[in-house]
Amino acid sequence: xxxxxLVVVLLxxxxxxxxxxKSRSLALAGGKIRGLHSLPMFYGWYVxxxxxIPTLLLFGVWIAMEDWVVRSMVISELPEAIRSLPADRLGLxxxxxxxxxxxxxxxxxxDPAIRPVVDHYISLRQTGTAAVWVVCLCLGxxxxxYGRSRISTEFRAxxxxxxxxxxxxxxxxxxxxxxxxxxxxxxxFEALRFFxxxxxxxxxxxxxxxxxxxxxxxxxxxxxxxxAVPLFVGTLLIAAIAMLVAVPIGLMAAVYMAEYxxxxxxxxxxxxxxxxxxxxxxxxGFFAALTVxxxxxxxxxxxxxxxxxxxALAAGLVMGIMIIPxxxxxxxxxxxxxxxSLRDGSYGLGATKSETIKRVxxxxxxxxxAASVILAFSRALGETMIVVMAAGLAANxxxxxxxxxxxxxxxxxxxxxxxxxxxxxxxxxxFALGLVLFxxxxxxxxxxxxxxxxxxxxxx
Amino acid sequence: MQNGTHNDLRQSxxxxxxxxxxxxxFYGEKQALYDVDLDIPARAVTALIGPSxxxxxxxxxxxxxxxxxxxxxxxxxxxTLDKLDVYDSKVDVVQLRARVGMVFQKANPFPxxxxxxxxxxxxxxxxxxxxxxxxxxxxxSLKQAGLWKEVGNRLQESxxxxxxxxxxxxxxxxAIAVAPEVILxxxxxxALDPIATAHIEELMDELREQYTIVIVTHSMxxxxxxxxxxxxxxxxxxxxxxxxxxxxxxxxxxxTQGYITGRFG
Lengths: 460, 265
Fold this sequence. Notes:
The complex is a heterodimer.
Chain A (H helix, E strand, L loop, with lengths): L2 H26 L11 H38 L2 H4 L3 H16 L12 H36 L6 H41 L2 H6 L3 E2 L14 E2 L2 H32 L2 H16 L2 H22 L9 H26 L2 H9 L4 H30 L2 H6 L17 H9 L8 H35 L1
Helix pairs in contact in A: 1-2, 1-5, 2-5, 2-6, 4-5, 6-16, 8-11, 8-13, 9-11, 10-11, 11-13, 12-13, 13-16, 15-16
Chain B lengths: L3 H4 L8 E12 L2 E12 L3 E5 L6 H8 L9 E9 L2 E2 L7 H7 E4 L10 H12 L5 H14 L3 H4 L12 H13 L5 E5 L7 H14 L4 E5 L3 H7 L2 E6 L2 E7 H6 L4 H7 L5
Parallel strand pairs in B: 3-8, 3-9, 6-7, 7-8
Antiparallel strand pairs in B: 1-2, 1-4, 4-5, 9-10
Helix pairs in contact in B: 4-5, 4-7, 5-7, 7-8
C-alpha cells in the first residue's frame, strides 16, 4: 500500500471521472451534442478538475507535512536524556531511528533505549499512509460525484474549464517569476552578509584580490584582500577580445547569409553556424586550454614574445568563436527584417549591392545589430567554463592579452569548490561577485531589449 | 480629360526615348509578358493601364532592369534607350539606373534625414563636386518635387516622419536628384489620399517638360488626366497603344473598350 500506488489509483480515478462526466452530459442531452452548452469533452474535464485538484492539494500537503508531524511525535516519545540533547545531536538520533525503521541498519544493532521508539516510528508511518489512502480516495470519489452531479445541459462547463486552464497558466508564470526573485534575493542577502565584514568601497575599488581568511587568530599569511578590480579588468579584457573576434565575423557572416547567399546555401550555413551555439562550453574549454593556448604560446615564443601558458588571448579567441552565432543569427534576422522596398529604392537609384548594404541596410538594421552585440557581450561576461579551463586564476591588472588574467566567473567557481565554511567572507565573496555580474548582465539585457523594441516599432 | 487637344502628341514633334521590341518576361518556367512592342515618347507621360496581374509592372521594371534583382526572372527581346541596348552585357546596370530612375508604389524613404535621402543618389554617383553643390542639388530636387516649402527648414529631420504624400514626393525628389532622363513610376498614388494624389499629378505635369515619365496606374481617371500616351495591357499582352485621347474616346480593341468602360478589370 505504498504512496506511489495511491498516485496511480488516483490517476485512474480521474480518468474514470473524465469518461463519467462526458457520458453523463451526452446522456442528459439524449446523445445530441447540439443540445449541450459545451462540447462533451469539457464536461469530462470539469469532473476531472473536481476529482483531481482537491486530492492533489491534500496529497501535496500530506507529503510536505508528514515528516514534520511524525518527527515531533517521535521526539515526544524519546527518553528525557536524548530529548534534551542539542539540536544537531538530536537530528542524528532521528536519522538513526529513520534508518533503523527502513532497515538500512539492522534492527538488532539498535540502542535498546530507542528500540521502542523505532517500533513506534514504523507504526506511525503505517497509520499515516493508511490514513492518506482513505482520505484521498474519499475526497477523490466525493469530488467526482459532486462534479458529475452539477452537470446539466445548460451548465457552462467550457467556461469553467477554460478559467481553470487560465489559472494554471498564471500559476506557471508566477512560479518562473518568483524563482527569479528568489535567486536575486538570496544573492542580495548573502552579498549583504559579505559587505558586513568587507567594506563595499574596498570591494569595488580595491586593486588586490587575495581571498584568504584566517581560520585561527594567529595564522601566518592569513590577511585577505577583497579588491575585485583585477577580476573586473580580467573579465572585460577577455570579453573585449571575444567581441573583437565575434562581432566582425558574426556580422559579415550575417550580411553574407542575408544578402549574398542563395536560399540553398543559406539553408545550410545558418543551422551550421547555430551548431556552434550548441557545443557544450566545456568542450570549448578544453579546446582553448589544450589546442589554442599552446599554439599561441609557441607562436609567440617563435617571434620572441613572452606568452603565459594560460593567456587571455586564448580564452578570448575561443569565447569569441563561441558567441559568433549570437551575433550572426540575430543580425541575420534583423537584416532580413529590413523591408525589401528600401533595397528596391536604393537599387532603383543605381546603387550597387555593396553601397545598398553599407548605406541603407546596415544603418536601418543598426539598432537590431547593436542589440545582438550587447546580448553577445553579456553572454561573454557570464561565460564560465572556457575561462575556468583556459584563463587561469592569476588576478592581474593588465591590458596585455598575452598575460594570464582571471575573471569574475572563474573566482565564483573557485571560491565555492572544495571544503569551505559557508559563513566566511571568502565564500560570501562569491555571492557579492555574482551580484555584480548579475546586475551588469541584467542591465545590458534590458538595454538590448529596449533597443530591439524601439526598432520593431519603426517598421510596424 | 481636360485640355484634350493641348495634351495631344503631334506626329511631327514626336521624339522617341525608349523602344521595346518583342519583350517577353519569364518567372522560372512561367511566362508573364509576351512580345511587347512599345515606343515611349520623350518628355511626355506614358501611362500603362490594365487589370491586376496583366504584366504592366513587370514591363515597367524591365525598363531599368529592376527585374535583375528577382531570382529566376528572365527577360527576352530588345529594349533600347536612345539607341543603347539596355540588356547588352556591356551595359552597367548602375549607370542605366542613374539614367532611368524609379518611384515605387509604396513610398520607401530611407530611415535617414530628409537631406540624406535626397543626397543619397548624388553621393553614390559622385555627382556633387563639393558640399555647396550637393546642398544645391538637394534644394533644386526638393523644389522640383514641390516639397521645399514644406520641409526646407527641417532637412535634418527623419524622412520616415513625413506624411504619406510628402514621403512619396520625397522619393520623387530622390529620383530627380540623380538627374535621370526617364522616371518610372509604379502606381505612385495608390497609397495616397485624393489631395496628395492631386499634388503628385500636378507634379508629373510639370516634370514632363524635362523628363520622360512612364507611369503604371490602376486609376483610369489618372491615366486620362496625366498622360499623353496610354498602353493597355491584358494577360501579359500589350493589347493597344495610342494617344491617351484616342484610347479613352475611340479604342479600336473591344477589350480596351471593355476595360475603360468598366465592364471588367
